[in-house]
Amino acid sequence: MKTIHKVLEKYDSKVYKNRKEHMVEVGNNDNNNEIAANVRTIPGIITQRGCCYAGCKGVVLGPIKDAFLITHGPIGCAFYSWGTRRHKARKEEGEDNYLQYCFSTDLQESDIVFGGEKKLKQSIQEAVDLFHPSTIFICSTCPVGLIGDDIHAVAKWAEKEYGIKCIAFSCEGYKGVSQSAGHHIANNQLIRYVIGEGDREIKNKFSVNLLGEYNIGGDGWETERLLKRIGYEVVSTFTGGSSIEDLKNAHKANLSLVQCHRSINYIAEMIETKYGIPWMKVNFIGVDATMKTLRDIAKYFGDPELIARTEAVISEELLQIAEYMEYYRGKLKGKTAAIYVGGSRAHHYQALLKDLGVHTILAGYEFAHREDYEGREVLPFIKMDADNKNIESITVEPDIEKYHLYLSEEDLNRLREEKLIDYYEGMVKDMENGTFMVDDLNHYETEELLKALKPDIFFSGIKDKFVAQKSGILSRQLHSYDYSGPYCCFRGAINFARDVAMGIYTPAWSYVKAPWKTAPILEGTLGGEAVC
Ligand code: CFM
Ligand code: HCA
């Protein structure tokens, strides 16, 4: 508690009270490790969070290679969200790949005043004339919501006019409190207009969807390679390197595997409700985690040959990496790490760090929900009758908390028996007592916590990595993998271990003295004269 108090004491009492709820010293608090999450950032605080548009356009839709994605808004949003996330895609024969392009309506002041629909229609016409795409996505930015352009009507017009698929996403940046709202919007439109439209014949009885895998640094390709070796067919990947055609056929798979739960749980649930295809939480980050995941999937299908093949592939892959793992474990054992990423990696990577003997002493998420920290039963949406006594219907709704209020223990047990309730493990399970979980960590708190905890490495994003480096602490980006990767499965573990060891044994940042430690910081020139 002392560490947390020391970080918080500079805040005024209102901010102190708010931020205190977002910080937990594991095993040493009065709240049973409960943590506040998925709520608004206090204005003025330098958060690392992104917006709704980033979650919808950048994260979920961005990696789909053959969707022609038009950002409807001023150019900055399109440009900033283009090419910064490292999803990769291969163009197969006869397919389109638009990932190297950035398309936007580039709204100007006059469009904001007189409306932007005309310009959007014109952009669609240009897209059709020049590129002949079969699918166009329209994503809204903040001003579009404020001026009230009807992008859904334009999408309908485009479908009729050009005989193409055109889907609109009202993902204005200001919606919700973070990227998370954008994931939800993208998920909803994909289930409404894409999934279920395909009629591919899948002969392999071990067919799976890979959900929440965005092929950052090639992770999706490595996971697919491993699954194929065992005998699985990956019908669709949401959405790393995927094509619209693959996504249309997701309902033809026998099982959905969910890697990032935070961004795609809605689709996993909706595919289950609509098409009866169950989903399973997996983690391909970490050697032990990958082994467990592969065994869990084989157990689900229950085929003895598949189970034997799984064990054989695990043994072969382990043998390939054993010598390297041993070497890097020797280098990294006992080191400490802080991890602060978006909504699931801060948890997933703890598994891999544990394999290497590294202790995670601080971890947090930008926009995760409480269940991602605390672990929780995941309930379907239950509509009660008018008297609030009986269950009228069950569909899927992610905001599950309030249904605990309506349901008796008896109802809950029935739902558990019918397997309508899943259990989802959160981060806290893997945090040792005395370590710290912090939600929506900001620059000031990062600085203070790094000073207090002195981890050997801080896993971060591009916005916060400089905070660590300026404090003399090594940083590796866990969003983009700093242009390395893949980091998943068995072979990826070695890439990760090599990168971490390379950084830790090159302590360059600790030799750097920030200039403001030795000289005044307000420096510049005025008319050629130096001023302070
Ligand atoms: Fe899922 Fe992701 Fe993440 Fe995420 Fe992201 Fe990402 Fe991330 Mo950056 S989908 S929640 S919204 S694992 S883009 S691939 S790295 S913050 S931890
Ligand atoms: C996003 C995308 C991001 C940003 C990465 C970062 C990504 O949230 O909009 O801040 O370094 O992974 O590309 O999370």
UniProtKB/TrEMBL annotation:
Q: Report the catalytic activity.
A: N2 + 8 reduced [2Fe-2S]-[ferredoxin] + 16 ATP + 16 H2O = H2 + 8 oxidized [2Fe-2S]-[ferredoxin] + 2 NH4(+) + 16 ADP + 16 phosphate + 6 H(+)
For this protein, the Enzyme Commission number is 1.18.6.1
User: Which InterPro entries does the UniProt record give?
Assistant: Nase/OxRdtase_comp1, Nase_comp1_asu, Nase_comp1_CS, Nase_Mo-Fe_asu
GO (cellular component) term, any one:
molybdenum-iron nitrogenase complex
Any Pfam family hit: Oxidored_nitro
Q: Which residues form the Nitrogenase/oxidoreductase component domain?
A: 51-503
* Top EC class for this record: oxidoreductase
The protein's UniProt keywords, in alphabetical order, are: ATP-binding, Iron, Iron-sulfur, Metal-binding, Molybdenum, Nitrogen fixation, Nucleotide-binding, Oxidoreductase
Fetch the Gene3D superfamilies from UniProt: Nitrogenase MoFe cofactor biosynthesis protein NifE, C-terminal, Nitrogenase molybdenum iron protein domain
Give any GO molecular function from the UniProt entry.
nitrogenase activity
Which cofactors is this protein said to need? [8Fe-7S] cluster; [7Fe-Mo-9S-C-homocitryl] cluster
Question: What PROSITE patterns does the database record attribute to this sequence?
Answer: NITROGENASE_1_1, NITROGENASE_1_2
The protein's role, per its UniProt record: This molybdenum-iron protein is part of the nitrogenase complex that catalyzes the key enzymatic reactions in nitrogen fixation.
Q: Which family does it belong to?
A: Belongs to the NifD/NifK/NifE/NifN family.
Q: What subunit structure does UniProt give?
A: Tetramer of two alpha and two beta chains. Forms complex with the iron protein (nitrogenase component 2).
Q: What is the protein's given name?
A: Nitrogenase protein alpha chain
Species whose genome carries this gene: Variimorphobacter saccharofermentans
**Gene transcribed to yield this protein:** nifD
